[in-house]
Amino acid sequence: MPRSPELSALSALSALSGLEAAVVAAVRRAQAAGRTPVVLIDGPSGAGKSSLADLLVAGWPAAGRPRLVRMDDLYPGWDGLDAGSEAVGRDLLEPLRASGAGTWQRWDWARERPAGRETVTGPDPVVVEGCGTLSRRNAALADLTVWLEADDTLRKQRALARDGETFAVEWDRWQAEFDAFAEREHPRENAMLTLDVTGADLSGGATAARSGTTVES
């Protein structure tokens, strides 16, 4: 009998040392403190952040129904890594910690302009994945911070297979921006949990989960 997507995702999560238990513990700590649980996932392009976040949401091992925010949806263009990192802390994480409600600005990549602003509110957990999430400022506002790493050749293959020629021509530009961010913010050191996912199977957890409860034009 085929396993459900949720069970498949839980099985994959269990194979990643410490992740499932770390999520459960983080959510319990946050809920005991009366705040919205926040999980941040960072790492270089192609490391598997989006796939891991999909697995985590699909097989969520803790209480609550998680909301997923992808940094790719809010970077203001190819030179926007630092701006996106700052904005997610200022507009989403800080207000969420203070009042239980935050926002983030969606970016229209095709038209190269801001789209709608999403509001995230309520006690259910929030997962944010993408390059630039683990600045020192952002990490201090999270209940669990995760750093992913993988073989450099594999990372590039994954990223280009996913995004094709659009990303291929921007790879060096984006990598240089991420390297500058990493040198300044030391995101790996800001992680509570570090996972090398070079040989991990991160397939099977795709989800259409969105983060916003309200979208304003």
Write the layout of secondary structure elements.
Layout: H1 5-15, H2 19-32, E1 38-42, H3 49-58, E2 67-70, H4 81-99, E3 101-108, E4 113-121, E5 126-129, H5 136-139, E6 144-149, H6 152-168, H7 171-185, E7 193-196, E8 214-216
Parallel strand pairs: 1-5, 1-6, 2-5, 6-7
Antiparallel strand pairs: 3-4, 4-8
Helix pairs in contact: 1-3
Descriptors for this entry?
217 residues; alpha/beta; 3-stranded antiparallel beta sheet; 41% helix; globular
Structural description of this entry:
The chain is α/β, with parallel strands linked by helices. It is 41% helix and 20% strand. It has 7 helices and 8 strands. Strands 2-5-1-6-7 form a 5-stranded parallel beta sheet. Strands 3-4-8 form a 3-stranded antiparallel beta sheet. Strand 3 and strand 4 form a beta hairpin. The protein is globular, with a radius of gyration of 16 Å.
**How many DSSP E strands?**
8
Order of H and E elements: HHEHEHEEEHEHHEE
Q: Uncertain segments of ≥5 residues (pLDDT<50)? A: 205-217
**Assembly status:** single chain
Helix content: 40-55%
Largest sheet: 5 strands, parallel
Order of the strands making up the biggest sheet: 2-5-1-6-7
What overall geometry do the principal axes of the alpha carbons give? globular
Secondary structure class reads: alpha/beta
Tell me the distance between the termini: 45 Å
Q: Overall pLDDT, averaged?
A: 85
Radius of gyration: 16 Å
Report strand %: 15-25%
**Number of H- or I-type helical stretches:** 7
